[in-house]
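Researcher: Let's continue the batch. This sequence belongs to Leucine-rich repeat transmembrane protein kinase family protein, and it's 128 residues. Same format as the previous ones, please.
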Amino acid sequence: MADVVEQEESNKMNARNIAVVFSPNMTQGEIPDIGTCSRGLEVFDVSGNNFYGKIPCSITECSRLKYLDMGFNRLDGSIPVGIADLKGLVFIRLANNSIDRTIPAEVGSIEWLEVLDLNNLKLSGEIP
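Model: Same format as before. Here are the structure tokens for Leucine-rich repeat transmembrane protein kinase family protein:
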């Protein structure tokens, strides 16, 4: 029995977060730093809320992230360059925010990216 309890505790310690979905529920405030809980994250969807502020840099630590949807909020600032390090991304939507500046050229190197929705932003410069 002690072995079973020990194994269960080990499973809890190694559990990974696969998805964070807050869409849409009119949550407001800044998107918190997701920090170390981000390692196993595959889906991050906070679309359709009233989040404001910058895209947290900790999103670039989500090495398993495949689906990133932050559209339809009030986010501002720039797209983090480190987002291009997330080589498994298939879907990115940042549309309908106040994000400005340029699209990082590195975004063009995300191999599996199928959807990049940057509609209705205040971007300038080249499309990678």
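Researcher: Any comment?
Model: The CA atoms of residues 95 and 119 lie 5 Å apart.
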